[in-house]
Amino acid sequence: MDEKFFADGIPEGPLPPDGNDDENLSLWEKIISFFRDDSPEAKKKKLLRDIQKILKKQKYKFINVKTEEALPALAKFYYQIYRTIAVPASLITGQEKSPALKYLFIDSILSEKQKTLINRLHKDNLEKRLTENAAEEENIKKELAILMKSIDEDQLSSISSLYRQYLVFLRFIKFDYYFLLRKFDSGFAEMDFKYKPGFQAISCDYIIDDLIDTVSLFPLLLRYESWDGVFEVLKVFKGQDVLSRDEWNKLLKIISSIHQSEVLSYIIKLMTKDPFYNAVADEQAEDISDEYFTKLKTSVEMVIQKVSIEKKNTKRDAILNQIFGTTAISRMKNYTEANNGVFKAKMLGGYLYIDMMNYLKAFMLDYVKKDVMRIVNFLVVKAEWKTNTSSKEMSDTMEELISISDRIMQFDQSLGSDEDTGAKMNTFLKRLTSDPKYKPEIKKLLHDINSKVVVISQDSYRNLAKIAQTLADIIPEFEEPPKLGIIINPGFVKTAYGNDLVGDIKTVYKQIFHFLSLIKLMFAK
């Protein structure tokens, strides 16, 4: 649209002399001028009168200074903006700051090698790589480190600058021009470009805030020589050009001309009665690079952890099925997930090893106090050991395991509401409601409780490992001929047992071995 669109009766040639100019004053008027009011308010009024004169001489006839009305030419200027940006504004509505769009601004600056690395580190690719090959975890960590190191300051600066430019464009197109134009024409229809507006003059009071908002954006728009970078990203994002670049460049020329004329700034100064008003060009900034790469790093770490947990759970379930024939093991009464809710709700942590204690209690009751104790007691009593030390060690270890089983029962019972630890915890929780100082006390008590589980698990592991090693050592004693001579009377022991002694020893050994593997897995980081 040509600038003549906004001009109305621009005078040709030099302007006629103003009768109020100093050079035309009479001697008497010059003398009187010495006694004129020189107060700040008087100076302000004079400046506002000067602004009126400037606006009367302006090329762009946007205001009737006498009536302080905004003229149709001003509406036509904003209509030209509306025609240019209405479609792109609607195309990206709701997606203005979507993660996908932000990434495209980053992607437009990255090298092909960097893009390839990011693709390899995508969540779906990571899960596939880690599932197919556990060794990929180290490669993934190396690739992430290489990518993060390769992003240089120039790239970060370019990304920041490009996205900052986009934010200017976004603010410009998201302004409600439709609402502004309806003030000039109440019948103006949104997005109806076949409609021929009938703009009327209106009081500038109705649009002064709109002028202030838009005028502050013009210097930001004009700061950039090229908009191709922003429009290319938007084209990729929407799969089409969001606006005509020729129309955009024409609009920028018109805005530049109007901005340089300062006509809108003068209107604002006049209407706000502030001759010193100056539009503040406040450019927004957002560090999308730091946001994206921090999330990428976190995502990679979470996927690695997720796949690791899934593999751990798969191994756990396989071991549980080998030992118990099921994965649903629930034996504890107080050290339970149900009782964990109150701690989690108050961000206190809670019971950390619930599954482990369920497995320990079940193994002690179902195996240690049955099959393991039966085999061990039989061997201690019936076998004649080469040294009494070996027999005593096995017997003592079995007694220690029985003791651990009792400790597990006592530990769980102590957490009941009628027992010392459970009652103490309930008291702390009640007092926490009115006194936050009890939060550290609760955390300390939870730490002590969980520490007991760790000690019980360690003691269980150590003693079960001793039993398993002794059983593994004596199995060869029942072969022909005996290997080590640990048991002096293997033939008598086999006969006294009656059934398949070696088979039963191997079965018990395997169950203990599986459970030791389970303990290691549950405490693995």
Features of this protein?
three-stranded antiparallel beta sheet; disordered N terminus; 525 residues; elongated; 3 strands; 22 helices; mainly alpha
**What's the helical proportion of residues?**
55-70%
Number of strands: 3
Low-confidence stretches: 1-5, 7-23
Strand content is under 5%
Instruction: Compute the CA-based radius of gyration.
Output: 42 Å
Number of helices: 22
Structural class: mainly alpha
Largest sheet: 3 strands, antiparallel
Shape annotation: elongated
Strand order of the largest sheet: 1-2-3
Short description:
By secondary structure, this protein is mostly helical. Helix content is 66%, strand content 1%. The chain has helices spanning 27-33, 40-57, 72-91, 99-107, 112-120, 123-132, 136-150, 153-174, 177-184, 208-215, 218-222, 228-238, 245-261, 263-271, 288-324, 341-345, 354-382, 388-414, 420-432, 438-474, 490-497, 501-523; strands at 63-64, 69-70, 202-203.
